[in-house]
Amino acid sequence: MRWLSRTVGVTLAVIVVAFVSQRLFGDRSMTPHLASSTPVAVIGAASGEPVAVAGDGTVLAWFPVPEESTLPDLPLDAPPKGPRVGGPVLEQVKVLAAAPAALRPYLAASYYGESGVDVELTTGIELRFGSAGQAARKWKAAAAVLAEPSVTALDYVDLHAPSHPAVRGSGHALPPVP
Are the C-beta atoms of 93 and 55 separated by less than 8 Å? Predict the structure, then answer.
């Protein structure tokens, strides 16, 4: 019974300290934050020590990336010093996070080119997104182009205007239908 009363006493002490801390420090105290932990890309795959990145840009250093990972590569040799990626790489992560599940196995890499975010498929086809704005809508347009029976090969799909995607070239085969 002594251990029970000691456990209850410690628990009450922790609750009191938490309550007093909240009253004294208000919003300046530590606030819990839940980060997305679903990996959408990897950094450093070429170096042999890949690190996963979540859809919100959080670097998932604790997440073991399997050797046969199908996550697309980001153009960084090593993870950033901070807990998140930023700038153009974050734009790429946001685009990759919006990708439909059916297309994710066919995503090879992402780059930030002259026109913005580009995603390369495993077959070599380039999807040109521009910014991460309207990423879900742009992915729907890309999926519609890739599913079009009259399109059998192409080089790139320009998705800057998702309601009017532009298709060019015939050098790369389409990914297989899932």
Answer: yes
